Amino acid sequence: MKFRPLHDRVVVRRLDQAEKTAGGIIIPDTAQEKPMEGEVIAAGPGARGEDGQIAALDVKVGDRVLFGKWSGTEVKIDGEDLMIMKESDIMGIIEGTSTPAAKGRKVA
């Protein structure tokens, strides 16, 4: 990918949710809600404070994150549906789970 977010913005790929409920009911695509969980695939350098110093982001590439339902802007980059959002739109990092795609992936 040839996209680098600026300032405190991050690029997130939504992670697919299960198409089946715990009871075994299959949910059609039209009835599914968009997942609020994703993987950070690119991150900017950080926000610049009033003193001119750059404050590094708390999230990094490969982190699995939760974000608000209406957070970010949906974009299509290299044919892939992604989201660009500010770090403040991210509610938290899901610890102890890494996506298989994050291992060995290099983002420019």
Structure report:
- The structure is a single chain.
- The chain is 0% helix and 34% strand.
- The strands form 2 sheets. Strands 6-7-1-2-5-8 form a 6-stranded antiparallel β-sheet, with no helix packed on it.
- It has a domain at 9-16 and 33-97: 10 Kd Chaperonin, Protein Cpn10, Chain O (Roll), CATH 2.30.33.
- The N and C termini lie close together (6 Å).
- The radius of gyration is 15 Å and the shape is globular.
- A hairpin with a 5-residue loop joins β3 (47-48) and β4.
- It has 108 residues and is mostly beta strands.
Brief description of this entry?
This protein has strands spanning 9-14, 37-43, 47-48, 54-55, 64-67, 73-77, 80-86, 90-93. By secondary structure, it is mainly beta. The termini are close together.
Give a topology summary.
Elements: E1 9-14, E2 37-43, E3 47-48, E4 54-55, E5 64-67, E6 73-77, E7 80-86, E8 90-93
Antiparallel strand pairs: 1-2, 1-7, 2-5, 3-4, 5-8, 6-7
